[in-house]
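ok trying this again, last paste got cut off
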Amino acid sequence: MEQVDAILQLARQRATAKSLPYSGAVLPTEAYFLMQHWPAAVLVDVRSQAEWQFVGVVPDALCVEWRSFPGMQPNPAFLEQLREKVALDVPLLLMCRSGARSDEAARTALQAGYTSVYNVLEGFEGDRDGASQRNRINGWKARGLPWIQG
């Protein structure tokens, strides 16, 4: 539990440094560690169904679309669907492709009453490299963490 506490403290420091309103920001490796050693925490993948199907998913992650493909329109039922799957007092680790949509979802979850909300920085695919390609410099997949093809 000592390492879990250290990760959460670092996550809070990142949130403070970036003026984030939610509990904290974790790197993919930290999120994976928390999934294994903080049983209360739940990884919620907020990417679109198309991304889950064609890009891949993290085993045991809950999937709740923040925006829907095509058009990436906001999912008006996001909070309802999240509440159906996860209670307000459960720690959330929210992840998208790069960390941007999950930041939006984290802010919304916090405003909706979730008390422990963390954004997974870098997301599933990470930032683009010099050739505008993802999955190479950072992110869940580039760090070699478990995932399966959708």
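PB: full thing came through this time. Residues 2-17 form the longest helix (16 residues).
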